[in-house]
Amino acid sequence: MTGPEHRSGFVSLVGRPNAGKSTLTNALVGQKVVITSDKPQTTRSVVRGIVHRPDAQLIMVDTPGLHRPRTLLGERLNDLVHATWAEVDAVAVCFPANERIGPGDRFITTELAKVPRTTKLAIATKTDLADPGRIAEHLGEIAALGAETGVEWAEIVPVSAVSGDQVSLLADLMVGLLPEGPQLYPDGDLTDAPEEILAAELIREAALDGVRDELPHSIAVVVEEMGLREDRPDDRPLLDIHANLYVERSSQKGIVIGRGGSRLKDVGRRARLQIEALLGVPVYLDLHVKIAKDWQRDPRQLRKLGL
Ligand SMILES: Nc1nc2c(ncn2[C@@H]2O[C@H](COP(=O)(O)OP(=O)(O)OP(=O)(O)O)[C@@H](O)[C@H]2O)c(=O)[nH]1
Question: Which positions in this protein are listed as binding GTP (predicted)?
C-alpha cells in the first residue's frame, strides 16, 4: 500500500568516465536491485536500478554520455541528453574526491546549467581514497564550480560506494528531493528502459523527417522488444530492436512506408545509425507500421503507447 507520504521519481547519476557512477548505483540499490542486465554494457549505455523502500521508490537512470559536439549528430545526441535530464526529477553529478575538478567536470556542469527546472545535486565520490583535508577542499571546489556555472546544488554529499560511508544518507537526501507519488514500478521486470524510450524517439524523428507537414504529431513509436542477440561473440554484439510505428489512418501509413517500401527502409536505416551512435553497439532494427485509429484522442491507446 502507498500512503500519502510515499515519494517516487527519477534520479540520473552523471559524471565523467570513471567517476564511480555504476558502483554508486549498485551501492544505492543494494540487494533489492532490478538492473536490466540484458542491455549492452557499454559505457554509453543506460543502466537503471530501482531502490525500493517502504516510503519511496527511487529510480536510478544513467543517461547516455555527453559529447563535445563536433558534428550535427553530436549536437543531436546532446539534445537528447538534455531532454533526458529535463525529464528526470534530479541529476546528481559525481566528482571523484581523489581527483581534481577538471575540464570534463566543468563541461558537464555547464551543460547541466542549461536544464533549469531539474534539481541538481553534487556527489563527492570515492571519499575512502582521500583524506579529510582533501575532501573538505574538494567540497569547496564543487561549490565554487556551481557558483561559476550558475548551477545551484540542492546538496553536496561526500560518499564512498566501496566502504558504504554515507550511502544511506545519500539515498535519504535523494528521496527527499523527489515529489510525492505512488510506486511507479512493480517489483520485477522493467519494460520501458530509457534506452527504449530514446530508441523510440530516434525512430519517430526519422519517420517524421521530411513529412512533418503531412503528419503533424500523428506518429507514435513503441519499442516492443530490445535485447542483445544470443550466441554472439563478446566482441561482435548485435542489439535486436523490434518496434512498431503507429499512425492514425491508412493514408498516413502509405506516406510513412513510401513507394514499394522505399521510405520506410530509409527511415529504418537512418534511425538505426543514430541508435548505434547513441548506444555504441551494432543494431538490427525491425520496424513495422500499424494503424491505431485516432490514437491521439483515445486515452487507453495513449497509455498503451506510453504517452
Ligand atoms: N576506492 C573506491 N573506488 C571506487 C569507488 N567507486 C568506484 N570506484 C572505482 O572506480 C572505478 C570506476 O568506477 P565506475 O563505477 O565504473 O565508474 P563510472 O562512472 O560508472 O565509469 P564509466 O562507466 O566509465 O562512466 C572502478 O574501478 C571502481 O571500482 C569508491 O567509492 N571507492
Answer: 15-22, 62-66, 125-128
